[in-house]
Design a protein that fits this description.
four-stranded antiparallel sheet, 0% helix, mainly beta
Length: 121
């Protein structure tokens, strides 16, 4: 059974870069047809998709975040990382990593427990 675990600082100052890592166990991030996502939930709001990295290594990001997010991976350690630049207090949220299957249909089938990141000076 695949398990995902987020890690990273819980407090980031405005204008700095937020960096979170998702470590995966029980399954490889290079397994065909899986996508590895970052999703966040600001306090009192709904879930917002941030971006994803595919099993092939290509990436896709939310247009709403413009060019601020960047997702990379370390296949030797079976983990992927989110960097979000130029953060503001509006980026305060619980950040989740999640696995998405794409065959035979798209669905999120595994989630991390989430980690709260607060942007504040």
């Amino acid at each position: 059974q695949v398990q995902l675990q987020e890690s990273g600082p819980g407090l980031v100052k405005p204008s700095q870069t937020l960096s979170l890592t998702c470590t995966v166990s029980g399954g490889s991030i290079t397994t065909n047809y899986y996508y590895w996502n970052w999703i966040r939930q600001p306090p009192g709001k709904g879930l917002e998709w941030v971006g994803a990295i595919a099993y092939r290594g290509d990436t896709n990001y939310s247009p709403a975040l413009k060019s601020r997010p960047s997702i990379s991976r370390d296949t030797s350690k079976n983990r992927f990382t989110l960097q979000l630049s130029s953060v503001t207090p509006e980026d305060t949220a619980v950040y989740y990593c999640a696995r998405e299957m794409s065959v035979p249909y798209n669905a999120f089938d595994a989630w991390g427990q989430g980690t709260l990141v607060t942007v504040s000076s």
